[in-house]
Design goal:
With about 140 residues, the protein is mainly alpha-helical. The protein is built from 6 helices and 2 strands; from the N terminus they run ααααββαα. Helix 2 (about 30-40) packs across helix 4 (about 55-70) and helix 2 (about 30-40) packs across helix 5 (about 90-115). This is MarR family transcriptional regulator.
């Protein structure tokens, strides 16, 4: 494959892989994404979540409302701006997110074991390191 097509092919392949693996999720993608951001980034406002997800404030607020109703997030007054609420993932939310991630990993692991030889699995493991480096470069780390 020519280098000029590698980036696009990689983008398409990774996107398809992510969408396929997420098909096993039991919660809506917006809610899972919000929980993920709260888990990785700590407390955030609804506006922060909307900005990070690249969605409208209204869309993020809808996800937050559902998560709060399910006891997966809790809100408290923002320490420096009383007009805002700071959202925290709860223990139940963290457990739910962990379960979603574990299910994704199980599906992916089964497919890897079924599809690839031992040598191909070793090659794939090498690629994970390369992809992590690429992600770091793109994220400015």
């Amino acid at each position: 494959m020519a280098d000029d097509g590698l980036a696009d092919e990689l983008r398409q392949s990774i996107g398809a892989l992510v969408r396929t693996v997420r098909a096993v999720d039991t919660m809506p993608p917006g809610e899972a994404a919000a929980l993920g951001y709260l888990d990785r980034g700590g407390p955030l406002t609804t506006a922060d979540l909307a900005q990070r997800r690249g969605v409208t404030h209204q869309s993020a607020a809808k996800s937050v409302k559902e998560l709060a109703a399910g006891g997966l997030v809790r809100a408290e007054p923002h320490p420096s701006d009383g007009r805002k609420l700071l959202l925290h993932i709860t223990d139940d939310g963290r457990a739910r997110l962990k379960g979603e991630r574990a299910q994704r990993a199980r599906v992916l692991d089964a497919a890897i074991r079924d599809e690839f030889s031992a040598e191909e699995r070793r090659r794939l493991a090498d690629c994970v390191g390369l992809l992590s480096r690429l992600t770091g470069r793109l994220a400015g780390r």
